[in-house]
Amino acid sequence: MSKKKILLYGFGTVGKGFYQIYQDKQSSEFELIGIIVKNLAKHSPVEVPIYQYGTEQEKSLFSQADIIIECTSNYTEGKDIVLSALENGKTVISASKKVLAENLNLILDTKEKHNAKLFYEAAAAASIPIFKVLNYHFSHENVRYFKGILNGTSNFILTKMETEGLSYGKALIQAQQLGYAEADPFSDVSGWDTAYKLVLLTFSASGTILNSHDLFIEGIENITFQDIYLAKNNGLRIKLLAHADLEKNIFFVCPAFVNNELANIDEAWNAIQIEYEYAKSQFYTGRGAGREATGSAIWGDLNLSQSLEKISQKPVSLIDTAEYHGYWFIRLHSPLETDLLYWNTAEVLTHNKIQNYYVVYAPLSRLKELKNKVKNAQIIQISDENTLKVFTKQTVSYSFQF
Ligand code: HSE
To answer: To test ligand 1's pocket by mutation, which of 182, 266, 267, 292 has the most ligand atoms within 8 angstroms of CB?
Structure first.
């Protein structure tokens, strides 16, 4: 049997992770015929030919390839590669969450029209095979809700700030050195990377295609040691979470105070808590970023692509996301911003003048307005009653000790 020909686009963390396993496995099933990069000068030769994107050599290898692995960090090129591979009926394995999330409808249509196959396990929660769980094993299930830690970089930064007292900036540099962060880490810390993953998981869970630009998205950029110690001294931790309530159509990304099983997920690990209609609660965890975790996810897709004819997909639907009122902790960084918080549709439960934070009951749309007005405000969700009591009964511990 002749080997399936693979062409790899992108030779960063994910591409190198795939290549490392390719070298280790000496596969009898697959042949890597080339690696395509944006800037040839940045790469040392490896045992497989490397060519620059847009050259004649690339075009020739593209036409020969059966399988395209797309793990570039450039949005426009990534989108072009995925779409033209699908248009040519090739099997596509992609790790580009932004490309997939922002063009899901178009990509799915193109795949259907050209009878191509598409897999993207590496695009969310890396080593956790969550798309396979949702698309195959639980395709008969209605998912009621899920919550997840889906960005390894942010979780790494929060963990390092809390457990080692490392500054935000230093923790981010470490995350970059370890290959966890995106080429532009804004996507990681601003919550957008988590939002793209929320879009992809929501689609597999329910068939619903969300528009990421409609979502409320809060990251961890303005988290301070005050916030982290405030949480810690009151038995809580702060985690950047994707929230999806599929029964009420509520979807958002925001850090939250947690003290449940999500609280124990450290460093670049990811975790997803899911509630199914019949199987009820499940909890998945594993490495969410890094060369080996993402490389392994690509290989999982590659193996599956040879045995599966069609991905099982719930009927596609578009919905209007619902307004959600909740309890929120808001830290301002300047007392001058205080007046902005006395909106008429938000109820202020507590205001702590010393630490300059508020606890409010407000809808997500109000939070979006606040973020537009006060760029460096940090919002953290208070998602359960016990945590709310911590803040409203004045039992908060203010000490800033480890
Ligand atoms: N930058 C991403 C993260 C990589 O930190 O989670 C994996 O998607």
So the answer is: 182
